[in-house]
Design brief:
This is Efflux RND transporter periplasmic adaptor subunit. This protein has helices at about 1-35, 100-155, 165-190, 195-220; strands spanning about 40, 45, 45-60, 65-70, 75-80, 85-90, 95, 220-225, 230-235, 240, 250-255, 255-265, 275-280, 290-295, 305-315, 325-340, 355-360, 365-370, 370-375, 380-385, 390, 410. The chain is of the alpha+beta class. The chain folds into 4 domains: about 40-50 and about 335-410, Beta Barrel (conserved putative lor/sdh protein from methanococcus maripaludis s2 fold), CATH 2.40.420.20; about 55-65 and about 255-335, Efflux pump adaptor protein, beta barrel domain (Elongation Factor Tu (Ef-tu), domain 3, Beta Barrel); about 70-95 and about 225-250, RNA polymerase II/Efflux pump adaptor protein, barrel-sandwich hybrid domain (OB fold (Dihydrolipoamide Acetyltransferase, E2P), Beta Barrel); about 100-220. Helix 2 (about 100-155) runs antiparallel to helix 3 (about 165-190) and helix 2 (about 100-155) packs antiparallel against helix 4.
């Protein structure tokens, strides 16, 4: 009995020891690699490929200018021929004013022109020939009066007639001479350069000018598109009383389309005129189209710390509309076969001494870097790393914080 109890006590002691040994073995199997080889950490692999640096911005669609359309005179709108959003060609009717009074004035002006033309024809075709005939008659009368005067003088010297008869002949010659001068002046006035002809021509010119003014005022009642474009605003309806000085419609002219975006001033040194870009409207994100940097505003907005940049769109897609929101990727640099690492693998990238933790022989080693372009979550490595190197990212997915010199194991690669 005593022997059995002793044997059981011995067995219990060895069982406890065996359990302890098993626990140690299991713990070594589970935690041994971590204790001996360090924690598993994700890494970023350094790779070599072509790299494009872009500056990303948002903005809106704009045309170089907008055209406001109004009226030249006060009137009542008779009808509106276009709707907002409609494309129009230069010369297309936009809206029309009531024009009965203008039409009557234009008709009166046309009649005044016809009357002035008739007066001019009268001067040229009737008055001038009559004046020529009158001048010939007056000249003949003058010649006859002069002959009579000369004969009467001869008779008076021979005492055949008295002083009264001579005086009558003198007066007759003077009257004939005055009539000849009058006829000559009348003919001169009817000929080119003469006063009657000049007055008739001036009256015709005045009537034609009045007719043109009346025609222009009548034309002002039909408001037409000044340029090709799209109607983007309409503030007029039939029956409205309108007057000069108010924009009733706004046209977005057809032609060069521009994108206006705001760029953070810290990227200003990267921008150049003529740089290529790819853009897309937020309403159609899958439809990307090319654009070119055309203008960089020389001033910086102090409130927003941004610079306005305009991009020309050589071939705008048909779906693009005025004031649409757009996203733009401006290509500012390109590197063929650049050495790249994910941006989260670079520590202190904005400092004078960026660095990375590279996995070397199972240890995390600090490596100073010289970096170049940065874009789209990638950094160009100029010095400090080689293709294929494994770099521990700054945020390693919640794993233990890695310090320089720690033993680590590579969990995965990117």
């Amino acid at each position: 009995m005593e022997t059995s109890r002793a044997w059981l006590a011995t067995l219990r002691r060895h069982g406890v020891a065996l359990s302890a040994v098993v626990a140690v073995v299991v713990a070594a199997a589970v935690w041994g690699p971590g204790l001996l080889l360090g924690p598993e950490v994700p890494v970023r692999r350094v790779e070599r490929r072509d790299f494009v640096q872009t500056v990303v911005a948002t903005g809106r669609v704009a045309t170089p200018h907008r055209t406001s359309v109004g009226v030249q005179l006060t009137g009542t709108v008779l009808r509106v021929a276009v709707e907002e959003g409609q494309a129009v060609r230069a010369g297309d009717l936009l809206f029309e004013l009531e024009s009965s009074e203008m039409q009557a004035a234009q008709s009166q002006a046309v009649l005044a022109v016809r009357q002035a033309q008739a007066r001019l024809r009268q001067v040229r075709e009737l008055q001038a020939p009559v004046a020529e005939q009158a001048l010939r008659q007056a000249q003949a009368n003058l010649d006859m009066a002069r002959g009579t005067l000369q004969r009467n003088r001869d008779l008076f010297e021979k005492k055949f007639i008295g002083q009264a008869a001579l005086d009558d002949a003198v007066r007759a010659e003077q009257v004939a001479q005055a009539q000849a001068r009058t006829a000559q002046e009348q003919l001169a006035s009817a000929r080119p350069g003469g006063s009657d002809l000049a007055a008739a021509q001036a009256a015709l010119a005045q009537a034609e000018a009045a007719a043109q003014a009346a025609q222009a005022r009548l034309a002002y009642t039909r408001v037409r598109a000044p340029v090709d474009g799209t109607l983007i605003a309409r503030n007029v309806e039939p029956g409205d009383l309108v007057q000069p000085g108010k924009a009733l419609m706004v046209l977005s002219p057809a032609g060069v389309t521009e994108l206006v975006v705001l760029i953070d001033e810290k990227n200003l040194h990267l921008l150049r005129l003529g740089q290529d870009a790819l853009a897309s409207a937020d309403a159609y994100p899958a439809e990307r189209f090319p654009a070119v940097v055309s203008t960089i505003d020389p001033a910086v907005d102090p409130q927003r710390g941004s610079v306005e940049v305009k991009l020309r769109v050589p071939r705008p897609p048909s779906a693009l509309r005025q004031d649409m929101t757009v996203s733009v990727d401006i290509e500012v640099a390109r590197r063929p076969q650049a050495l790249l690492v994910a941006a989260d693998g670079v520590r202190d990238p904005d400092s004078a001494q960026p660095w990375a933790l590279r996995v070397e022989d199972g240890h995390a080693r600090r490596r100073p870097l010289r970096i170049g372009l940065r874009s789209g979550g990638w950094c160009e490595v100029l010095e400090g790393l080689a293709a294929g190197d494994a770099v521990i990212p700054a945020a390693n997915g919640g794993a233990v914080a890695v310090r320089e010199g720690m033993r680590v194991r590579v969990q995965g690669a990117r």
